Amino acid sequence: MTTGAWFLPSVGAISRRPGAAGGGAYTDGTLTIPAGVEAPLGWWSARGVELDGSSNITKILNKGSTGATNDATPIYAGRAVVANRAEWNSEDVFDLQSVDAQYTFGNIPEARTLIAIAGYKDGLDTTFDDFDGLISDGIGGSGEITGRSGQAYFFHAMTYFYDGVPKGLSATEAWLPSVKRGIAITNNASFSAAGTLFGDKGFSSRSWRGYVGDVLAFQNILSDADILAVHTMLAAHYGA
């Protein structure tokens, strides 16, 4: 594959039309945020990446409302690649097999709702190897989806949602094993800054491995109904 930006043919130019409350008008060219849900500040997926001559991802384009300010670039030597998997409805996803394929998108100081759809490693592991981050710290706080080392659940948040369903504060219900599953968290203002994809900031060994679809960061705490609506959108796309 040649160097340059990679898009599905249907994507074309990224449309950034957030509006006052999203209103179902905000789209990345393939998916549209459900009606009434605010536009995400950050929205990263394998549908919008730049590749080098070896098909490694050198930049992940932010399709959220902050635009190129929060494009993501590699931190360490590892690189993600784009995979097309039958179990992901044959849609493009991030393939994170490298042990340090982490990316920084700078800082989003208020990312109080984080939503993603992901699998962990080969889908068979029942505990996290380390505090493996899917999205993690920015400057001034810690808005993160990070596995708890040696456990099947996550590190901390105000409230967890598995597949769009609320699980409560600091839920200890198992999320693993996961081939493809939704995860969302909400954070208060003291723990809402995010800046790293696919790792726990500052720790190259705490990298997420497996396949990842979309990762979204919203400024405000979304309602349970809005979180479920976003998850349903992603699940329909990836055949979850």
Please describe the topology of this protein:
Blueprint: E1 4-7, E2 42-44, E3 48-51, E4 57-60, E5 73-74, E6 81-85, E7 91-96, E8 103-108, E9 113-118, E10 133-137, E11 145-146, E12 159-162, E13 165-168, E14 181-186, E15 194-197, E16 210-218, H1 224-238
Antiparallel strand pairs: 1-3, 2-16, 3-4, 5-8, 6-7, 7-16, 8-15, 9-14, 9-16, 10-11, 10-15, 12-13, 12-14
**End-to-end distance:** 29 Å
What is the count of structural domains?
1
The percentage helix is: under 10%
Would you report the number of β strands?
Answer: 16
Write a brief caption for the model:
This protein is mainly β and 240 residues long. The protein is built from 1 helix and 16 strands. The longest helix has 15 residues, at 224-238.
What does this structure look like?
The protein is mainly beta. The protein has one domain: Jelly Rolls (Sandwich). It is built from one helix and 16 strands. A hairpin with a 5-residue loop joins strand 6 (81-85) and strand 7 (91-96). Mean pLDDT is 89; it is low at 1-22.
